[in-house]
Structure formats: C-alpha cells, structure tokens
Amino acid sequence: MRIGIFGGTFDPVHYGHLLLAERCRELLSLDEVRLVPAGDPYHKDRDDVTPAKARAEMLEFATAGNPRFVVDRREIKRSGPSYTIDTLRELRSERPDDELYLLMGADSLADLPNWREPEEILELAVVVAVTRPGEEISQPDELAELWGGRSADRIRVVGLPLIELSSSDLRQRVCSGRSVRYMTPAAVTAYIEAQGLYEPAE
Question: What is the phi/psi pair of residue 43, to 5°?
Fold first, then answer.
C-alpha cells in the first residue's frame, strides 16, 4: 500500500488541511492518508495548545465518511514530545512492505534540516512538499543537496490551489465571536461550540 502521513497540531482542523490531504491522496495515488495529531508539539507553547483528545475528536468528525482518511492517535498516546522520526520508525516496523509518504507544507520542508534525524526521515519516507500559488520553493534536486546529496526522488512537490485558512485565524475568530462557517466542517464547528473551545479567558 501507499500510505500518506500528515502530522500537525490541527488546532482546529480546517478545510485547508483536508484539501491538502485529499490532493496528495489523488495525485500520488495513495491508498490512505493517516492524519496524526501531535500529542506534545515540542515547537509550540504547550499552554496555548488545545488538549490532544479534543483535537483528535475534531479530526474524527472532520474525516467521518471518508474511508481513505484515518485519524492516527499514536503521538497522543506516546509520552514526551512528538517527533516525526519516531512515528515513521513505528509505521515502518508495523508496515515493512508499504510505501510511506510524509506530507508537509513548503515552509516545513525548508525547516526539515533542523528536525530530529532528517536523513533517516528521507530514508523511511518520500517527503512531499505542498505549495500554494506564488509560493517559491527549490527544486527537489536542489533540496536534496541539503542532506548531503540524497537522491532527489525522495522529495516530491505538489501544487495546491490557493486557500487562505489557518488554525490560528480560526481560533482568533472564535475568540472574538466571529463565524468560522465554511472554513471547517460543520461537525467541527458544532464541537467547538459545544466544548466552549477558543473562547476568551474570563
């Protein structure tokens, strides 16, 4: 099987995330995309991150009805900071015959040399960088030079239609009482309202 791995905080998930996952699934002929909410994102202020259980539940609501999308909670269950390399090692051990594709935004690709064990990440998975219209990104052969000349076939670039959405903007909109309708699935909006997420502190 060809498996996509799309990790993130998903705080909250929105249509930009879902479109990225679906676009990669289609263009790369992926059998499934595993959306992996970070349990303890080491690169973010932990006090500002919504509890992992709520973020995973929003993902479940957002992907319900799509059998090709799987919410993978392994990083939530793992203690300590969430590192992509640990997730890839686990998946490779569980699925030794499958092809793994690590999906990420172009900004994350630029930062990949600073991730834990970037060379092994490229060994375990093909890295797929998703770009938006007008976004500049080096070609795969140029990017490969960052990791000592790793083969450029370990890096793919996929274009995504322009969609101006971000989780931080959705949180701010909810906090200020503005609508997030049509920015995230209706079931996620209902969950946010029912749980009182992102409301201003009293």
Answer: -95, 5
